[in-house]
Structures are given as C-alpha cells and as structure tokens.
Amino acid sequence: MADPEPGLAVVIVTWNVLPLLRECLASLGPQLGARDEVVVVDNASGDGTEYEVRKCYPWVSLVQTGANLGYAAGVNRGIAATSKPYVLVLNPDTRLAMGALPALRRLVERDPSIAVVGPRLMKPDGARESSLRSFPTLTTLFVESTPLKRLPLLSRVVRRYQLEDRSDAHVQAVDWVWGAAFLVRRQALLEAGGLDETYFMYSEEVDLCRRLQALGWAVVFEPAAVVIHHHGASSEQATTGTLIRFNRSKVLYAAKHIGRLRSECLRRYLLATYRWEVAVEAAKLALGHKPQLRRERLRSYRRVLDSGLRRLP
C-alpha cells in the first residue's frame, strides 16, 4: 500500500503587516490539504500579530524570532520548523487565487528535477507583474533602478533582464523567480544550504536559484498558479532601510557571483548616484519645490551615503 500524501508546508515571514497577513491566510485556507501545515514567522512585529495568530488561527504554527532578522533568516527559521518535503514560501502581502496551490504542487511532484516553481504574479488591480527573470549581469546591476535606465539604449538591458519579449503563457524553465511566492523542494534547498542570511532582504531568491541551478536543479515558472501581490508592503514601512538593503544586496550578489573588484566598482557607482540625487534634491529645496518631500528625500539619501552600502543598517 502506498504511503499517504505527505503534504507540504507554507512559510510566511511577516513584519508589521497584520491586515495583509489576514488576507494571505484567508486565501490559503480553502486550498490546504489535510496534511499541509502553515508556519508564520513573526519578525518581532509590533502590531498585534502574535496575539491574533494565536487567538484566531489555531491551525497555524507561530515562530517568534524576537527581533527583525530579515527575510532570508526568517524563511530559514520557518523551514526548520517543519519537515514537509515541499515548502511554499510567501510574503504576507500576497493572496493565492483559487487553484494556485494545487497547480504549484502538481508541477513539483510530477518532475523530480524541479527545485523551485514560481507562480504568475498579479497586482491587486489585475495588472500583471513581471514574473520571469534572467540572472543579472554586471551591466544589469549598474542599470536597474538607477538613472542609467532612463537612457533609451540602456533601457533594453532592463527589458532583457525582465524577459519582456518572452511569452509567459506556458510552463517554462527560467533563471529565477521572485521571492514573494515560490514553492521549493526541501531536498534541493538543504543541498544548497538554505537561503543565504547575509542578505537581509532582496536578492536572496536570485542567489538561491543560481546556487540551485549550479547543482543541477531546475527553476520553473507555472502560469496556471496565480498570486496577487501587494508589492513592497513591508518594505515601504522603512524607506531608508529599504534603499540601503536593496542596493547593499546588489553589491553582495555581485561580490558572490561576478567578482569582488567589479562589486566594488558597483558599490562606488551606486553611492555616486545618491550623491547626484542629494544635489538634485538640495537644488529643488532651494527653489522651494515641495520642501517637506525634499527634506525627507535628503535625509534618506544621506543615510544611504553614510551606510557606505557595506553592512546592514
């Protein structure tokens, strides 16, 4: 007689987004199997998350970190709290459309070479988010989210990075998928050593997918699984920290996968872009244009410069 279906685990790392966490958990309920588990990792939220999860969601296992450890470390804590062979990693600002969980599960169970399956991401208004990605090159890291992307010739670099010319209508192998929602095979994740906790937030999923593929595992996009994503809901609470962590993670990724000398060139370039932004904002402030906004941006950009993009804020 065959063993019963072992089930899967859902791991959600949350920080001060309780209203969105409620929506995320509500979308999971109807799609969970009898042997599935849900683990919420609370990164020391101050919004009543612990109380509400314990009181209102008895079917959820709660892991309290005691401090904001970051996303990668939180995911690792959640995965350590379960022994299921497959783990669906979710941001708390996501909602699963009906049928998303079964679609992800079917694909990873059908093909033992797959380590990661990513869903189609949609915005709350129904617009599509770019769910396909190629691995970033050094040029990509210099252009993406910097003033260079405004140049017509270099904008093509971002389009290639986001695979904008590739159809997303069918199942396909990709370099990496967004960390907002992905199903991962535990065996593969353990083989790769888990998520790299050096990344506090951002780029940890790119790094993981790159390491998995170097080990011979596949990363696949499944368009039949749809996940609605309120992009950046957690990170918007700490804009300055977000800027530092996003850019620091780019530098870290470059150091690991492209080369330390080139990563140092990238770090210096990114800091130079913020010096330029400080000059622009100071000029606008001197002209009296939206003074409150200009002061806020100046404080934020100066903190980025003070960080040096060398270590965690």
Bulk shape:
globular
Beginning-to-end CA distance, first to last residue: 54 Å
Using DSSP, what is the number of strands?
9
CATH topology descriptor of the largest domain? Spore Coat Polysaccharide Biosynthesis Protein SpsA, Chain A
| Structural classification | alpha/beta
For CATH, the homologous superfamily of the largest domain is named as Spore Coat Polysaccharide Biosynthesis Protein SpsA, Chain A
Strand content: 15-25%
SSE layout:
Elements: E1 9-14, H1 18-28, E2 37-42, H2 49-56, E3 60-64, H3 71-80, E4 86-90, E5 94-96, H4 100-110, E6 114-122, H5 138-143, H6 152-161, E7 172-173, E8 181-185, H7 186-192, H8 204-214, E9 218-229, H9 239-257, H10 260-286, H11 291-307
Parallel strand pairs: 1-2, 1-4, 2-3, 6-9
Antiparallel strand pairs: 4-8, 5-9, 6-8, 7-9
Helix pairs in contact: 9-10, 9-11, 10-11
Give the tags.
313 residues; alpha/beta; Spore Coat Polysaccharide Biosynthesis Protein SpsA, Chain A; 2 domains; 9-stranded mixed sheet; 9 strands; 17% strand; globular
Question: In summary, what is this structure?
Answer:
44% of the residues lie in helices and 17% in strands. The chain has helices at 18-28, 49-56, 71-80, 100-110, 138-143, 152-161, 186-192, 204-214, 239-257, 260-286, 291-307; strands at 9-14, 37-42, 60-64, 86-90, 94-96, 114-122, 172-173, 181-185, 218-229.
